[in-house]
Design a protein that fits this description.
alpha+beta; elongated; 6-stranded mixed beta sheet; 38% strand; 148 residues; 16% helix; Immunoglobulin-like
């Protein structure tokens, strides 16, 4: 009986630890037309940026059944909420390939000056679910036509 109780306690312990660990690695899911929103904070004095934007890139290749679909997108609607703190949001485009996207850059601009901050170290990912697909047929032939 004590072995059974020990096993139950071990299983319950793992059951409570595993979801907490997996939640950190689960990327939020979005589809074309959805709004994404992030809070961006800068250190130091208030930079008074006029625009802050985010750039996401697809991890891997565009799926074969989504030729010509985009493999990157951004969010660039900026709202300053506090000194050095911005809310940035955007709409997931219709022509975006499905897959996991990673935040690559945070871009900031004031006047004619701008800077791209590398953001891969934040390890932020979003999952894009897009059911749109198209398989192009093979090109059979092209033949010149003689003038009439």
């Amino acid at each position: 009986m004590s072995k059974f109780v020990g096993l139950v306690i071990a299983v319950l312990s793992l059951a409570t630890i595993a979801p907490a660990q997996s939640l950190k690695s689960v990327a939020p899911h979005y589809k074309p037309g959805d709004n994404i929103r992030f809070r961006v904070e800068f250190d130091g004095a208030d930079p008074n940026f006029e625009e802050v934007s985010l750039s996401f890139v697809l991890e891997g290749n565009v799926p074969e059944d989504q030729p010509g679909f985009s493999s990157s997108f951004g969010a660039n609607r900026t709202a300053k909420v506090n000194p050095g703190v911005f809310e940035v949001d955007g709409t997931v485009p219709q022509n975006i390939a499905r897959g996991t996207y990673r935040l690559k850059e945070v871009n900031a601009a004031v006047g004619n000056a701008s800077k791209a901050y590398e953001a891969l170290h934040f390890d932020i990912r979003v999952q894009i679910d897009n059911d749109a697909r198209f398989i192009f047929p093979a090109l059979k032939s092209v033949t010149p036509q003689t003038p009439q």
